[in-house]
Amino acid sequence: MTLQNTRAPQIPDSVPEGPVRDFIAHWAEITRPDRVVVVDASDDASLLEEALAAGELHPAGDGRYYSRSHPRDTARSEERTVVATSDPSDAGVYNNWRPAEEVKAELTSRLQGASAGRTMYVVPYLMAVPGGPLARHALGVELTDDRTVVLQMIRMARVSTRFLEELAESSDPGYFVRGVQVSGDPESLGQGTDDDQRLFATLADERTIIHYGSAYGGNALLGKIAHALRLASYDGRRTGDFLAEQFMLLGVTDTLTGKTWHVAGGFPSASGKTNLAMTLPPDALGDRYRVTFYGDDIAWMWVGDDGRLYAMNPENGVFGVARDTNSRTNPAAMEAVRPGTGTIFTNVAYNELTGDVWWEGKTPDTPEDTTGWRDWTGTLIDDRDPSDRDAPWAHPNSRFTTALSNVTTLAPDATDPAGVPVDLIIFGGRTRDREPLARVVEGNAAGVYDGLTLGAEATFAAEGLDGQLRYDPMSMRPFLSYPEGDYARHWLDILGRLTEPPTFAHVNWFQRDPDDGHYLWSGFRDNLRVLLWLLAYREGTVTGIPTPVGVVPAAGELDLTGLDIPADDLTRLLSIDPVRWGQEMQARSVHLSAFADLPEEISGAHRDTAAALADSMTSPDGAPHDNS
Ligand code: GTP
Ligand code: SPV
Ligand code: MN
Predict the structure, then answer these.
(1) d(Cα 334, Cα 362) in Å, to the nearest integer?
(2) Which positions fall inside the Phosphoenolpyruvate carboxykinase GTP-utilising N-terminal domain (predicted)?
(3) Do residues 46 and 106 share a domain?
């Protein structure tokens, strides 16, 4: 046990006098680290060396690294995450609102001396493309007492001491996000018990984030989820200027005509954003189309001078799910973690003799020679208890972290501060039935309504929720920071200022056969076929088939060149079952009724959909729609 320091440590002279220095001094006085170190991205090599020497990282071949988090610290905790402000009317259904004073007092007490024996790293960062219209909202300083968190931040955000100088010279040097992350001792945090000490708080109206008790992913990399989603969406609505959403962003280019479209998409955590954003065209369409990557998890969107919706990815790296990533499902991701990329693999299986890494789905079978292999908990495969023989080698939420510059499909204009205009917004999740492969919903209100009623199976990206069916509005449920009715209103306001709004659509790659459970759609690279149909619909070159819940593709309109899909599966993928949808509408009524101040346009869209469904049931051709 380390004795608590009697004096707070020196703050390096490189931190100018002013709000940043005051912020560091305030928290160093409370957490009492042994020393304070300011980080620049150029410190990566020396930090990696220190982390390897300390056993926090292990070599994973040619400039790649392996890390293992504590077995009770492997995913975001939604239960322990709160938004705290001084205004009780900020309480929504999903944001776990608490009074700021209470939360601050609780955290200040837990953080007393909590970094004793450790180093406090000062990480100045920007969550934006430099120079863009929203860069002002993107500056932050994360204080962390964990070296691996620093190494992850260097890959995921733009980290530079230059931002400290920029702030010192700014007319509003206090306008930066204050982030404090303390990992704590994972053995005494009581994770999951009644005495759980962890608390992950965004003090939204103070632009302060304090996270105690985790070194993993969105719990610990404060720039990513807490700043660029929770706080940014709060700021976006407070200023009226922008939307911050858990959306991927990609470009599709038709090389025949030279035209490029941009598609943004909200899918709940671990439901396919990274895979879609990195997708390569299926081989049969590869000569004609190109897909370019902008972002895989977060998009900030604003109204451009030309009346179109513009978007940019505030992140500088990819924190991607490892499971099922292989050269067939996602060749671009395999390429982005190739030797020499500085990639950090977390909680996959690791061979301590060869430095190889493996996860479920990387290859069809586990490595044949088990010598040297350890599972994600660090147990030698050969020593595992026989009862664990079938347990996965990698944690289902194991991930790779790689910088954007390693993504070979990165769009040439991905770092253009002007952003890119959005043509299409899609929502989708893991839905085993009801949701067809694709349906267009017409108009802004119907689009926002569709996003608010996104229902899907929860995944292993959050603790203890895998497989539960739940609504996940716009895929933002874990990241919402203010009430849902106001959120819908803010969306409608932004969309209402556009002269050329995007087209909205719902997609589902995860429909299953009710008998044997197989996925009806091949997914992954073939998903481009669906995007192409949606873009053709926007361009007016296909008409689709109207249904009460939107326009679905006619089977003949999808480009299925080179795809072998049973006719029955395709029929089911494109069908609407009004009875099943009728049940869904009941559930939606309950879901929406929980939201205070829901805009009338949204209630109207709900009523219109319900009426259209009722009509289709009573009309003479009211049998389930079948588009084969
Ligand atoms: P977060 O980073 O948690 O926000 O996740 P994400 O939305 O980026 O999800 P990701 O693309 O990493 O996919 C999560 C899991 O879904 C992976 O195991 C993928 O292999 C799987 N997946 C992605 N796309 C498809 C698809 O089209 N079909 C099927 N069957 N699985 C998919
Ligand atoms: C998610 O869970 O949606 C993620 C991963 O993108 S994490 O950064 O851990 O939140
Ligand atoms: Mn995510």
Answers:
(1) 10
(2) 22-237
(3) yes
387 annotated among ligand-binding-site residues = no
Range of the domain at 38: 19-55+80-240
The predicted structure's pLDDT at residue 5: 67
Report whether residue 374 contacts ligand 2, using a CB cutoff of 6 Å.
no
Cβ of 318 closer than 6 Å to ligand 1, yes or no, is no
pLDDT at 621: 54
Q: Locate 475 and state its tokens.
A: 């895929």
Q: What's the pLDDT score for residue 1?
A: 46
Residues in the chain predicted with pLDDT less than 70, given as ranges, are 1-5, 619-628
So what's the pLDDT on residue 620?
A: 59
Q: Ligand 2 pocket check: which of 74, 76, 155 to mutate, most ligand atoms within 8 Å of Cβ?
A: 76
Count of domains in the chain? 3
Mutation probe of ligand 2 site: the residue of 269, 313, 472, 477 with most atoms within 8 A of C-beta? 269
248 lines ligand 2 (CB under 6 A): no
> Which one from 160, 271, 481, 616 is the annotated catalytic residue?
271
pLDDT at 346 (0 to 100): 98
At 441, the amino acid letter reads: V
* Å from CA of 330 to ligand 1 middle: 10
Q: Is 218 in the pocket of ligand 2 (CB under 6 A)?
A: yes
Is any ligand 2 atom within 6 A of the Cβ of residue 295?
A: no
Which of 404, 439, 464 marks a domain boundary? 404
pLDDT number for residue 458: 83
409 token code pair: 């499909």
Tokens for 36, please give them. 């304070």
Q: How far apart are CA 342 and CA 62, in angstroms?
A: 8
Residue with tokens 């009346």: 307
Taking only the tens place, the pLDDT of each residue in 547-598 is 999 999 999 999 999 999 999 999 999 999 999 999 999 999 999 999 999 9
The reply to whether 416 and 393 lie within a common domain is: no
Residues with CB under 5 A from ligand 3 (ion): 269, 297
Cβ-in-10-Å burial (0-12, 13-18, 19+) of 367 comes to middle
Order the strands of the 299-303 sheet from edge to edge: 242-245, 299-303, 309-312, 420-421
> In sequence order, what are the residues at sequence separation of 6 or more whose Cβ sits closer than 8 angstroms to the Cβ of residue 366?
358, 381, 393
Does residue 46 have an active-site annotation? no
